Amino acid sequence: MLNVEIRHAIDPKTAKTFGTEELRQNFRVGDIFLSGQINLIYTHYDRMIVGGAVPDGKELVLDEVKPCGTASILDRREMVIVNIGGDGTIKADDEYAMSKGDMLYLGMGAGKISFSGKGRFYILSAPAHHTYPSRLIKIEDAASVTLGSKETANERTIYQFVHPEVMKACQLVVGMTKLSTGSVWNTMPAHYHDRRMEAYLYIDVPADQRVFHMMGEPNETRHMVLKSEEGAISPPWSIHSGAGTSAYTFIWAMAGDNINYKDMDMVSMETLR
Q: How many CB atoms lie within 10 A of CB 129?
């Protein structure tokens, strides 16, 4: 079963008028990991698609997605699939066995995609202009950097999977950040990048804990309270940061004008409001 939701772009002036429910309706990513279903959110931010597939022991097939305007989703797109659950298998241009934490890059033209096994698959897709080879990337293959400190409650390791230092892709830059025990802040001091949108997915959050996701213009910040397997669509004009009531992991993905990971507009702590 395939469900597709359309999210139109929201400008910062309009976003300032939103209450809690309107913020969540427009920017929250949730209810995408439902048993026996593929649920996609087609955004008008750089045409990024975010979604989830939970085969739950059956086979699910992703092929035509009408908002894309092509016979098959990967005819003019690339895709990254992240397994956040048990062992599973993806079939596209080849067959790929995936464990929790693995990321699979599928290049333009890789064909229809089938999901099977016990995996919980997070789906990210953006338009592509060139075909790059598909590749399964495990955490030991990723580039990594450790940032922050215990003193500022933001000790974390950033794993760069689909990233120029690891492999070539058209638009997508995707990775995973794991916070150390006792650390709760991510991406603070904050930044934004007007040339690219970003999507977050928070995982490994204990059931009785939450993450406060920070968004909005630097001088007009807002927040959403999110649980595990929920995330946020971050417009190019918005900061993206978060603080949890416990340690957690999050998956970040970017698409837009370039693939330069360090292309960001930093926001000083004195500027935030």
A: 9
